[in-house]
Amino acid sequence: MLLLQFSTSHYCRKARLALGYKGLDYRVENLTPGAHVFRLKPLTGLTTVPVLLPELTGEAEAIADSSHIFAFLEQHQPDPPLFPADPAQKMEATFLEDWLDESIGVATRFVYYDYRAGEGKAIDPSLMSQVVIQIVRRQYGMTPARVALAAERLEEGLNVLRSRWHDRPYLVGDRLSIADLSAAALLSPLARLPHYRDPHPWLFARIIEVHRACNEPLPPGLSDTDAPTVVSAPPSP
Q1: What is the crossing angle of helices 87-99 and 66-76, to 10°?
Q2: Average model confidence (pLDDT) for the chain?
Q3: Which are the contacts of 100, defined by CB distance < 8 A and separation ≥ 6?
Q4: Around Cβ 113, how many Cβ atoms within 10 Å?
């Protein structure tokens, strides 16, 4: 399998977590923003990453969107499951994944790139990095007012997640699901922002736990030496 991605995309990280959790062998092809459209549009008709090329006889040539990739991987290799077996929990996990995709993941993108263009510029002050950041900011219309709204939405989202994830290891049920993988991937950029990292050690402890369970390298800003520690509650019987 081949995953077409931007190396820094948190939505692509979400797909990598799922591939790793399933224990599947795959390769990545890192695309260049802007030029990526010439690679993707003939395959999917879209210009967004991630895109998975299963490279399997009888399967689709290309699968776009991380949620569709989740569904394909579950059908291709059911064990270990990404979706809870209980119908009500499955619906809950699917709802959380969609909320994380459409609201919290987008808010994280706004807050992260605003930080990287200002206070966090020193993370990578190179011309290429700053050009990409400005392209992304223009592409998504990241005005100060919209960034402020995103920050408010993100804070509300963290309060919701804290009520579920602070004292127990899983967002839904008693094992990892699409909800945990989505939260761990889509909130991972915040590890580089001290004003999120410092007040929410429980969040980054969960992110680390999910990455280790999926055999995925930790995101930038997290490492074995500076990882926060939160004692997980035992899984429900």
Answers
A1: 150
A2: 90
A3: 157, 179, 182, 183, 186
A4: 22
User: Per residue in 46-102, pLDDT tens?
Assistant: 888 999 999 888 888 999 999 999 999 999 999 999 999 999 999 999 999 999 999
Q: Global pTM?
A: 0.88
* pLDDT < 50 stretches in the chain: 225-237
Rounded to an integer, what distance in angstroms lies between the CA atom of residue 58 and that of residue 63?
A: 13
Residue with tokens 């989505």: 182
Alpha carbon separation from 102 to 62, 88, 114 (Å, rounded): 22, 21, 19
